[in-house]
Amino acid sequence: MSNPFFKNQGPILISEILKSLKINFDGIDLNQKVIDIKDLYNAKDNHITFFHSAKYNAIAKCTNASFCITTESLKNELPKNCIPLIVDNVLVSVSKLTAKFYPESIDDNFDDTVIDITETKFADTVKFGKNILIGKNVSIGSNCSIGHNTIIEKNIIIGENCSIGSNVIIRNSIIKNNVRILDNCIIGKHGFGFFPIKDKNLRYPHVGIVLIEDNCEIGCGATIDRGSMSDTIIGKNTYLDNQIHIAHNVKIGENSIIAGQVGIAGSSVIGNNVKIGGQAGISGHLKIGNNVEIGGGSGVIRDIPDDTKVMGYPAKNIREFLRDNK
């Protein structure tokens, strides 16, 4: 999906990229143009990608990218079509390069194009409360309602039969049909990504979006961060309780139920038909299978296979947990 929220400043000459990353490389056509920067899975020909962990070896072997920012120890996992660019710190290098392609994605400033809904075409088509602000190039389907003091920023797409509560901020997001977003939610803001460098923190650009599929409900006070390089996705018919935090790049499958105060760290993938009890925490870059049940208050620090029930910290099979806590 093309991103309507951040303008890509590419193509950029590979010579300029090598210079900015302080890489010396012989044998490359320095006039070759790089169109975009993408993750390993979504990168195509004339794209540049990155590869920083052996956990992604299988995806790296199949990437279609022309160039990959990586380390000496990982470069041999890449296919022949992908030229490795060796750096000391992959993620810092990717952050700097992403900022060149998408300079508007760093600061995450408020949308200064918004106007009162009464001055827009939605004044006659949307049921709304007081003090509603709408940005440019917004699409809202039929039979939708918006509560008091809510801001829908530019380029947002909202489907049919959606209910947006009061004191909600939505940016960098696509919301499908029959979705309920309850009061005080913040959807599509910059994720928590930065690198400490001496006395300054380097912000990581977040150029992805939030995609909320059909028939979902997002509880009061929930925060869903947009993706950094890929998208944050909430699958069809998934319900989130109040005060939940979904970090950047998280992907939640269909028909899942997540109770209050759960936190899911960045880039974890949650399967279909998953149930997560209140105040559970899931670490980043994990894979939680289909039909998994996670007990309340659990701390998940490892992948969980399909059809498993876990509980505790670190989360373990529920039979083992109950045996150990008699």
Fold and architecture overview:
By secondary structure, the protein is mainly beta. It folds into 2 domains: 12-105, MurE/MurF, N-terminal domain (Udp-n-acetylmuramoylalanyl-d-glutamate--2,6- Diaminopimelate Ligase, Chain: A, domain 1); 172-324, Hexapeptide repeat proteins (UDP N-Acetylglucosamine Acyltransferase, domain 1). It is 9% helix and 28% strand. The protein has an 11-stranded mixed beta sheet. Strands 7-9-12-15-18-23-26-29-32-35 form a 10-stranded mixed beta sheet, with no helix packed on it. Strands 10-13-16-21-24-27-30-33 form an 8-stranded parallel beta sheet, with no helix packed on it. Strand 19 and strand 20 form a beta hairpin. The longest helix is centred in the N-terminal third of the chain and has 12 residues, at 90-101. It is globular.
CATH superfamily assignment of the largest domain? Answer: Hexapeptide repeat proteins
User: What is the count of helical runs?
Assistant: 4
Strand content: 25-35%
Principal-axis shape: globular
The overall strand count is 37
And the CATH topology of the largest domain? Answer: UDP N-Acetylglucosamine Acyltransferase, domain 1
The tally of domains stands at 2
Q: State the name of the first-level CATH class of the largest domain.
A: Mainly Beta
Structural class based on helices, strands and sheet pairing:
mainly beta
Output the keywords.
326 residues; mainly beta; Udp-n-acetylmuramoylalanyl-d-glutamate--2,6- Diaminopimelate Ligase, Chain: A, domain 1; UDP N-Acetylglucosamine Acyltransferase, domain 1; 2 domains; eleven-stranded mixed β-sheet; ten-stranded mixed β-sheet
